[in-house]
Structure formats: structure tokens, C-alpha cells
Design brief:
The complex is a heterodimer of chains A (249) and B (205). Chain A is of the alpha+beta class. Helix content of chain A is 35%, strand content 14%. In chain A, the strands form 2 sheets. Chain A has a 3-stranded mixed sheet. About 14% of the residues of chain A have low confidence. The chains are: A alpha+beta (249), B mainly alpha (205). Chains A and B meet through helix 1, helix 2, helix 3 and helix 6 of A and helix 1, helix 2, helix 3, helix 5 and helix 6 of B.
Chain lengths: 249, 205
């Protein structure tokens, strides 16, 4: 048997396997309505969440994202208060509704992370949700906010349909600082380039939108430079962002 | 390579006066087929019936999971339904839904979500609607998925979905020459993995 014959046989087998699949558009619409209304059973949703979290940790080696120790941000780069810029989830239904904000003590501050809920294939910025996070007060507020973002939605948020930005378990963020002149410099690990097809599909746009929203929540940020292991051009190549004037960073 | 595909697509879209493919209609409006100007408006039900099994087969080949394939195919059509007012205007909605499905199938996050939902169906004793593959056939598709993403996508679109090079270029956002290169390299690599002799192939656009 040559290559063409083997491939043709495999194609026939694949087509046979879907031949009996029901084609019922009404069922799809019912599924969508149920999903929208959040009517899935509690047990089912809980199982999905556990499976997702456990599966991601298992597949990624189960390593937690390291917590930042300190970056070079100075006192005057710390915003007085972060301000959310995403839409407020519709009230009255649990799905896509942020859970109650975490309680924060005096030693804590609030930053926002941004996620899509039921992310579409062509995500738009107006579809982002701003979710609060209470973190210990820090000078490295940008880095702390981004690390919260990269941790992904909490289990409860996952239940409510919020999507993670990047696969959990890898230490994507190398550094994130805000310079005195208001430029946020965000350095990612080179492993980001290995995430399957990230630069060519809509998830790339989702990553871009969530990062931009998280970075721009701080009023002191006037511009943002993204780098891959210190190389802004590599980042621009990966995501096809504008590279003009970036080589100096 | 993947980055090059999008860059070429953007350049070609720009030359043709089209919108940015990453933000809007990914498919050229120059090839009337599914939705014509004076033809009756296509209903979502017809669109779904015409393409669901094809998209399901693509998703199965690219994910290797019956549950994930079913969920991803449904997710692609949910996206089509959500944007139906826009999608039904597209001249090549068939290419649009395949682009969505192939993108979803190679997204690790989405694939894991689909697999998790599949586990849910196992737990609730809901069998997948896709029949299991013969182990020999399954091993071929496993080798296809081990290829670089673009090569795997191009091969699956070419052989499972009988798509022309031009269609594959539109779906993947590549130049036709790039698609031919993906197909050629993918075929060679797959033949080597399977240990089978490979004949030369001419690609018609």
C-alpha cells in the first residue's frame, strides 16, 4: 500500500465516523439558550470546572505561576487607583456575571483583570469584563496585576463562563515595570512563542486585548512596550503589532 | 510560518480593499457562492445542515477526540448563529465556518475546554455522536496531528474536506504558494512518519 492509498483509506474511515452524526440545528440553538441562561445543572458545571482546572494543571506539569518579588517601579508610578474599563455584566443571570468582589483589608489594594466570557472567534474589546482582584499592596502593581491576569479566572469565574487568557501553569511573565515617563515595559518568556498558532489566530487578538486592558487600567501608563525575552521586535513579529520605534527598548 | 500566513492575508486583503481579516469577515467577498445578491437569503438551518458534518470531520481529524470534535463543531456553529446577520452576508460562509473550526481546533485552551466538556458527557453517559475510528485509521490522523499546525490544517482541509488550494489559502489566511508548500512538506513528512512511499502530486488551484 502506498501513501495515497493509505491516506484515502484513513479519509474514508473518518468520513464514515461522522456519517451518522445527527444534524439538528434546533438542538444547537437549545444548547446555546441553555448556556446563555446558565441552566446547566450545578453538578455538571462543577465537573467541567474541576476537569478544566485539573486537566490544565496535569497537562502543564502542575506548576504554579511564581509570585513576583519586586520590580523597578518607583513610588510616583503607582496609580492612586486602578479603574475598570470593561462592560459591567448583565444583572439577573449568573452566567457572565462576575462573582462578588473579594474582601480586601487595609493591607490590600484592588486591581482589575480582564477576561472574555464565552469568547467569540473574533473577540472585540467591548466584550471584555473587568473583574476585581484584591492583592497585597505593592510597588510592582503592574506586574502584580498581570500575574493575576495570567493566573486566569478563579474556579467560580470559570463556572460562570469566563475564559483564561493563556494556558495555565507556565511562568509566562518575566518582568513588568512602569518607567518614570509612563511607559509600561512588559517582558514575556520566549516559551510564549511555542503556544500553538498563537500569532495567527483569533486567540492572539484575545491575548492582545486582555493585556492592553490590564495594562491601560493604570492612569500613569501612557504607552506600553511588549517584549519577548527582552526583544520587542520578536514580540511584534509574534503578534504582528506595530514595531515602529520599539527597537530602543 | 503561521505569522507569515496572516501577514500575506492582510497584504492581499489590503490590496483587494477588504477589511482586516483578523477583525472582520475573513473570507473574500469576490467569489459568489453561498449567498448571492438576488438569491433568497440563506437560513441558518440550511447552512448548518450543509456544513455540520464536514466541520465535524475536520474537528475530529484535528483534535483526535470524538467529544472535543463534537463540542468544537457546535461551538463554531454557535459563533455562526451569534453572528448570523453578518455571516449570512458573506459570499463564502463555508470558508468562514471552516476557518473558525480550524482555529478552535488548534487552540490549546479551547481544546482543553472541549475535552473537559467531553469528560462531562462521559460522566453523564452521553455517547458522542461521532463513531470511533478504526485503530489503523486513528494512527494516521495521530501522525497528521503531530505535524506542524499549518501542515496538519492544510492536509486535513485538502484530503478530508476536498478543498482547493485557493480555498485553503482563504481559510488559513495564506498565499496559495504557501499552502502548496505546507501541503508538499506535510505530505512528505507524513509519508516518512508512516514509512510509505510517496508519489509526486500536482496541486490545482
Amino acid at each position: 500500500m502506498n501513501f495515497e492509498e493509505r491516506l484515502a483509506r484513513a479519509v474514508d474511515g473518518l468520513r464514515r465516523s461522522v456519517r451518522e452524526a445527527p444534524v439538528a440545528p434546533r438542538r444547537l440553538l437549545v444548547l446555546r439558550r441553555r448556556r446563555r441562561a446558565g441552566l446547566a445543572t450545578t453538578a455538571a458545571v462543577a465537573f467541567v470546572a474541576v476537569a478544566v482546572v485539573a486537566g490544565q494543571q496535569l497537562l502543564d506539569g502542575g506548576q504554579e505561576t511564581e509570585v513576583a518579588t519586586r520590580d523597578q517601579a518607583t513610588e510616583d508610578t503607582i496609580p492612586a487607583e486602578a479603574s475598570p474599563s470593561g462592560p459591567v455584566a448583565a444583572r439577573g443571570e449568573e452566567h457572565c456575571q462576575p462573582p462578588d468582589p473579594p474582601e480586601g483589608g487595609e493591607a490590600n489594594m484592588t486591581v482589575f483583570v480582564y477576561f472574555f466570557c464565552d469568547m467569540s472567534s473574533f473577540p472585540r474589546p467591548e466584550e471584555l469584563y473587568a473583574l476585581p482582584r484584591s492583592i497585597p499592596k505593592t510597588n510592582a502593581v503592574l506586574r502584580a496585576a498581570l500575574e493575576e491576569l495570567l493566573k486566569g479566572p478563579t474556579p467560580e469565574e470559570t463556572l460562570r463562563g469566563f475564559d483564561p487568557v493563556l494556558p495555565h501553569g507556565t511562568k509566562w511573565l518575566v518582568d513588568a515595570t512602569i518607567t518614570d515617563d509612563g511607559v509600561a515595559i512588559i517582558d514575556f518568556a520566549k516559551e510564549l512563542a511555542d503556544v500553538g498558532n498563537i500569532g495567527a489566530t483569533s486567540p492572539a487578538e484575545a491575548v492582545r486585548l486582555t493585556l492592553e486592558a490590564a495594562v491601560r487600567q493604570f492612569p500613569t501608563v501612557k504607552d506600553a512596550i511588549y517584549r519577548l525575552e527582552g526583544d520587542p521586535m520578536a514580540w511584534c513579529e509574534l503578534f504582528e503589532w506595530s514595531c515602529e520605534g520599539r527597537s530602543n527598548y | 510560518m503561521a505569522t507569515r500566513c496572516v501577514r500575506e492575508s492582510k497584504r492581499r486583503s489590503s490590496q483587494a480593499g477588504l477589511m482586516d481579516v483578523s477583525k472582520a469577515n475573513p473570507v473574500s467577498r469576490h467569489n459568489p457562492s453561498l449567498v448571492g445578491g438576488d438569491e433568497p437569503a440563506l437560513s441558518f438551518d440550511d447552512f448548518y445542515r450543509a456544513h455540520f458534518r464536514h466541520v465535524l470531520a475536520l474537528a475530529y481529524a484535528l483534535t483526535g477526540s470524538r467529544w472535543a470534535a463534537e463540542d468544537l463543531a457546535q461551538e463554531a456553529f454557535v459563533a455562526a448563529h451569534r453572528n448570523w446577520d453578518r455571516v449570512r452576508q458573506y459570499d463564502r460562509g463555508d470558508l468562514w465556518i471552516r476557518r473558525v473550526a480550524t482555529n478552535l481546533a488548534v487552540s490549546r485552551v479551547r481544546r482543553r475546554m472541549a475535552e473537559a466538556k467531553g469528560l462531562l458527557k462521559v460522566a453523564t453517559s452521553r455517547p458522542p455522536s461521532v463513531a470511533p475510528l478504526d485503530p489503523d485509521d486513528g494512527s494516521v490522523w495521530r501522525e497528521v496531528r503531530a505535524l506542524p499546525v499549518r501542515q496538519a490544517q492544510a492536509l486535513v482541509l485538502r484530503y478530508v474536506d476536498d478543498r482547493s488550494v485557493r480555498d485553503i489559502a482563504e481559510i488559513l489566511g495564506c498565499a496559495e504558494g504557501t499552502v502548496k508548500a505546507h501541503l508538499s512538506r506535510g505530505r512528505a513528512a507524513l509519508a516518512a512518519r508512516l514509512g510509505l512511499p510517496l508519489a509526486a502530486e500536482e496541486y490545482e488551484t
